[in-house]
Design a protein that fits this description.
- The structure is a single chain.
- Helices cover about 55% and strands about 5% of the residues.
- Strand 1 and strand 2 (about 125) form a beta hairpin.
- Helix 3 packs parallel to helix 4 and helix 3 (about 50-70) packs antiparallel against helix 5.
- It has one domain: Four Helix Bundle (Hemerythrin (Met), subunit A) (Up-down Bundle), CATH 1.20.120.450.
- The chain has helices spanning about 15-35, 35-40, 50-70, 85-105, 125-150; strands spanning about 115-120, 125.
- Belongs to the DinB family.
- This is DNA damage-inducible protein DinB.
- It comes from Chryseobacterium hagamense.
- Pfam families: DinB.
Length: about 170
């Protein structure tokens, strides 16, 4: 009996995952920006949080989570630390956290993606699953933002337009 080695190609690279994630972040930023300021902070449906609070949650998880993975820190996240009062302040922090993600994501080696990591001291999963959680959570909350915008009579950005138009 002979054994044959096969070369397999990687399905997706770390750079492609980051590009995919940043496409989602770009779209979520556009959703934040589509809200009138008052409604961004006050409007809700069925007892859900206003979209500004959902955006603060995303800000409190993605950048600090990525940094925590790189620095092997497992501190609880705190979505009460940042309390923006204006859309401009929220968007500025969104952009800062996007840069934090870019800086720290680039420091995660291919091997680390398979390592188990206890994110925020709560969730023990491989690093790649933690990253996918960040993306999934953002998509989920952005869907709530779409619902709010439609209820306000505002056309949300097309969901497939995740990247800036050049």
């Amino acid at each position: 009996m002979t054994t044959t080695a096969t070369n397999t190609k990687q399905f997706i690279t770390a750079g492609q995952i980051l590009e995919h994630w940043q496409g989602h972040r770009n779209l979520t930023r556009r959703v934040i920006d589509a809200f009138p300021e008052k409604e961004l902070f006050e409007f809700s449906i069925g007892g859900m949080r206003p979209f500004a609070r959902l955006a603060v949650e995303l800000i409190s998880i993605a950048g600090p989570g990525t940094k925590g993975i790189v620095e092997s820190r497992m501190e609880a996240y705190d979505h009460e630390k940042f309390n923006p009062k204006t859309k401009e302040e929220l968007l500025k922090r969104w952009d800062e956290e996007t840069e934090t993600i870019n800086r720290y994501f680039a420091q995660i080696s291919e091997e680390r993606f398979q390592e188990s990591f206890n994110l925020f001291g709560q969730y023990e999963f491989p690093v790649y699953q933690n990253i996918l959680y960040f993306i999934d959570n953002e998509v989920h909350h952005r869907g709530q933002g779409y619902t709010y915008l439609r209820a306000l009579g505002i056309e949300p950005p097309f969901f497939w337009e995740r990247f800036p138009v050049l």
